[in-house]
Write a structure and sequence with these properties.
34% helix; Leucine_aapep/pepB; Leucine Aminopeptidase, subunit E, domain 1; 2 domains; 18 strands; eight-stranded mixed beta sheet
Length: 462
């Protein structure tokens, strides 16, 4: 899919003025007489996302007004002005130079995100309004962030028929080739020889061309001796549990998609870190060789797991990847996965819930999230719930009965395999059921921009 970009600067750009209801009279008084009369005649009230094209004296287009809404509306929404990218008439627009710098930055990024279209299977109407990068905005950084987000959305939006383990491997291989990363793949029965039994168990029933695998990508020899290891579960196919909505299955690899999008941002920006990306990619299929409820499973770490739900497979494959990553004692290890419905129930589709034992890391991520309009919410590694994941017949239970605290117990399960590391876990949703400014309906990255923004503080980068 085409990568969203800014328009080339020129002298003929149309003026784009962002307006609040309180500032409307002043904004209208500043307009050319014809444009001012038109705006008053149209009854423009600067509601959130409202757009009004303005004529010039010759009947052509002078520019446009975009409503931001009142304080309440702005508190409820983000990227409000970016919706103009899909509403304005064709043309090249430039923000009024008097626009607040923070608002200009958010609008510029939101414009690129709003311009995304998934057109792999059917042509999509692309907005014809283009924005000149505002002065003072790091346009190249925003392009890189938007491109990484577009990759994440493309991967999630692609149905499982075209986005299995082989396809995720291909996506990672493309990144490795473009950015000079090193990549290895452990596949099929090689997983048993490499002591990755959970990944093998979950994916062993898949067809040969969709064999389970662990993708291991390494990039960067710069900077201090640190690794940022990342594990992510990816299960883009069927399950032996009750059926899920069609979009629910294809987004099951949203963690892998978000990790790959973030990895692209990191590499394209040339950050001075050592990055390791681990993607356990499996198809959880049904056949005579599939794993069963009640099976006791072996793991890389040596812990046994009682499998009480074959649809709680994401945490199983992620467990082996986390154990592998922890063996190198990384400075920071982060997992991202569309892991539990309980997380969505707890905080809804718009927030990225995350877990960490480090208060300083949680604070850094929270501050960064606020700066880049990528909202997150810290959830607790609540130690009193540890007995819920200890079934007695095995070391761990992958799906405790009772239906209580499902996201927390999943996070506690994963923490057992990341033991000894500084660890952050994101249990993300990865999907927009309804379109919103800068977030079209469909797959979406969550938490990636917050992590990218927090990285200098998390890893003490210069």
């Amino acid at each position: 899919m085409p990568t969203p970009d800014f328009a080339a600067p020129g002298t003929d750009a149309l003026t784009l003025r962002l307006v609040t209801p309180d500032g409307l009279d002043a904004a209208l008084g500043d307009l050319p007489q014809v444009a001012q009369a038109w705006a008053r005649a149209q009854g423009f009230r600067a509601g959130p996302g409202a757009v009004l094209a303005l004529p010039d004296a010759s009947g052509g287009l002078w520019g446009a007004l975009v409503g931001l809404g009142d304080d309440k509306a702005r508190a409820r929404g983000r990227f409000i002005a970016a919706s103009a990218a899909s509403k304005l008439p064709e043309g090249t627009y430039a923000l009024d130079p008097a626009t607040d710098p923070d608002l200009a930055h958010e609008t510029a990024l939101g414009w690129l995100l709003e311009s995304y279209r998934f057109d792999r299977y059917a042509s999509q109407e692309h907005g014809q309004a283009r924005l000149v990068a505002p002065k003072g905005v790091d346009a190249e950084r925003l392009r890189i962030i938007a491109a990484g987000e577009a990759l994440t959305r493309d991967l999630i939006n692609t149905p499982a028929s075209d986005m299995g383990p082989t396809d995720l491997e291909a996506a990672a291989a493309d990144l490795a080739e473009r950015f000079g990363a090193r990549m290895t793949v452990t596949k099929g029965d090689e997983l048993l020889a490499g002591n990755l039994p959970l990944i093998h168990t979950v994916g062993r029933a898949a067809a040969a061309d969709r064999a389970p695998r662990l993708v291991d990508l390494r990039w960067g020899d710069q900077g201090p001796s640190r690794w940022w290891a990342r594990g992510c579960a990816s299960t883009p196919a069927g399950s032996t549990s009750s059926p899920a909505p069609p979009w629910g299955m294809k987004k099951d690899m949203g963690g892998a998609a978000t990790v790959l999008g973030l990895a692209q941002m990191i590499m394209a920006l040339g950050l001075k870190i050592r990055l390791r990306v681990l993607i356990p990619a499996v198809e959880n299929s049904v056949s005579a060789t599939a794993f069963r409820p009640g099976d006791i499973l072996a793991s890389r770490k040596g812990l046994t797991v009682e499998n009480n739900n074959t649809d709680a497979e994401g945490r199983l494959v992620l467990a082996d990847a986390l154990a592998l990553g922890a063996e190198e004692s990384p400075d920071l290890m982060i997992s991202m996965a569309t892991l539990t419905g309980a997380a969505r129930v707890a905080v809804g589709p718009d927030l990225s819930p995350f877990y960490t034992d480090a208060d300083a890391d949680a604070a850094a991520i929270g501050r960064a999230a606020a700066r880049v309009a990528d909202p997150v919410w810290r959830m607790p590694f609540h130690a009193p719930y540890e007995p819920m994941i200890e079934p007695g017949i095995a070391d761990l239970d992958n799906a405790p009965s009772g239906g209580m605290a499902g996201s927390i117990t999943a996070a506690l399960f994963l923490r057992r395999f990341a033991e000894g590391t500084r660890y952050v876990h994101f249990d993300i949703y990865g999907w927009n059921a309804k379109p919103a400014p800068a977030r079209p309906k469909g797959g979406v990255g969550m938490g990636a921009r917050a992590l990218l923004e927090a990285m200098p503080e998390l890893l003490d980068l210069e």
